[in-house]
Task: inverse folding
């Protein structure tokens, strides 16, 4: 990227988003013990699919967030293809999340919100 930043997305539920809000939209919260990996995604459509199809039904609402991180810093994390051609993630070990957060440029912003369609049964 010409500005040295890479745009990432993260499908997020309401509890995690509240913790991001408390950080003044600047950091992802620490992982829980059962969450050894933080995985931002490289494709907005993939993030939408997770937020809409998984997070919204499970949590009552699903969000897609967008944020930018130093491309040079991200080079340490290999891109993981976890499904189809556009299903791409970075796997950031939980113990590296503070350092990852320090390389976020600007704020984390909500770009989509999804709620379950209550009429579908």
Result:
């Amino acid at each position: 990227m010409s500005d040295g930043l890479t745009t990432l997305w993260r499908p997020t539920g309401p509890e995690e988003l509240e913790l991001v809000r408390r950080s003044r939209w600047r950091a992802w919260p620490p992982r829980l013990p059962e969450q050894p990996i933080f995985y931002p995604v490289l494709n907005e459509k993939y993030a939408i699919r997770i937020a809409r199809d998984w997070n919204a039904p499970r949590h009552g609402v699903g969000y897609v967030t967008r944020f930018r991180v130093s491309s040079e810093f991200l080079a340490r994390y290999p891109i993981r293809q976890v499904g189809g051609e556009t299903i791409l993630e970075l796997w950031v070990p939980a113990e590296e999340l503070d350092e990852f957060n320090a390389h976020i440029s600007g704020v984390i912003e909500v770009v989509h919100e999804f709620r379950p369609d209550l009429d579908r049964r």
Notes: The chain is about 30% helix and 30% strand. The beta strands are 5-12, 37-38, 62-70, 79-81, 88-90, 92-93, 104-114.
